[in-house]
């Protein structure tokens, strides 16, 4: 069995974290790099990721996340937030990054930029926001997989009130909207879920071969 599959069997949605255990700075940088390297449509990465360590701020967030203890007990709290009404500004910034990173003239990728703009800027705002929100799930997947490789527990969470989280973190002023939360740290020895067998569909039930 590959190390990746072993890590996937090891991980689970941790419900009770050991608040005394913290992720090392080195491992945190690996998790951040895994998120940064995540795939996204066009490579645009139309989102921001907030890492909340401040205990007072996390205490304010807990009621907005249905009172779940992971919010305050985990080592680190990641909040994925999509960019609202993404448009030409973000695309132009991305094109500048491509030109600088690859050392090519900006005019060489102008056509690609025009193509992106024709596909994205013409969309209704609600459609754009749904699309950018979906992109955050790709980044979350990379975080979960990288954490499992490091034997760090990570719990993805949709159970929160985005409007309240946006208000507490000042996301509205930044043109952002909270879409996902991930709590990261180390499981508490009293978390009974770590001993439960993983329940998934069988391959025969899940996959359809055509």
TrEMBL record:
Family, per the entry? Belongs to the nitroreductase family.
CDD domains membership: NfsB-like
Q: Which GO terms describe its molecular function?
A: oxidoreductase activity
- Species for this entry: Flavobacterium terrae
| Domain Nitroreductase positions | 10-186
InterPro entries xrefs? NfsB-like (IPR033878), Nitroreductase (IPR029479), Nitroreductase-like (IPR000415)
* Ranges annotated as spanning the membrane: none
As cofactor, the record names: FMN
Which SUPFAM superfamilies has this protein been placed in?
Answer: FMN-dependent nitroreductase-like
Sorted keywords for this record are: Flavoprotein, FMN, NADP, Oxidoreductase
Q: What is this protein called?
A: Nitroreductase
């Amino acid at each position: 069995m590959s190390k990746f599959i072993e890590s996937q069997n090891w991980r689970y949605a941790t419900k009770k974290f050991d608040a005394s255990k913290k992720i090392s700075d080195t491992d945190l940088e690996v998790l951040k790099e895994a998120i940064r390297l995540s795939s996204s449509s066009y490579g645009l990465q139309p989102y921001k990721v907030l890492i909340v360590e401040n205990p007072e701020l996390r205490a304010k967030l807990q009621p907005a996340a249905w009172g779940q203890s992971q919010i305050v007990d985990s080592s680190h709290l990641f909040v994925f937030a999509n960019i609202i009404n993404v448009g030409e500004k973000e695309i132009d910034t991305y094109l500048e990054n491509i030109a600088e990173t690859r050392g090519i003239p900006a005019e060489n990728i102008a056509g690609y930029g025009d193509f992106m703009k024709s596909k994205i800027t013409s969309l209704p705002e609600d459609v754009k926001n749904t699309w950018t929100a979906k992109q955050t799930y790709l980044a979350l997947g990379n975080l979960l997989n990288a954490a499992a490789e490091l034997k760090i527990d990570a719990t993805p969470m949709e159970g929160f009130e985005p409007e309240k989280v946006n208000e507490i973190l000042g996301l509205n002023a930044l043109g952002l909207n909270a879409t996902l939360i991930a709590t990261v740290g180390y499981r508490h020895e009293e978390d009974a879920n770590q001993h439960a067998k993983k329940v998934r569909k069988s391959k025969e039930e899940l996959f359809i071969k055509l």
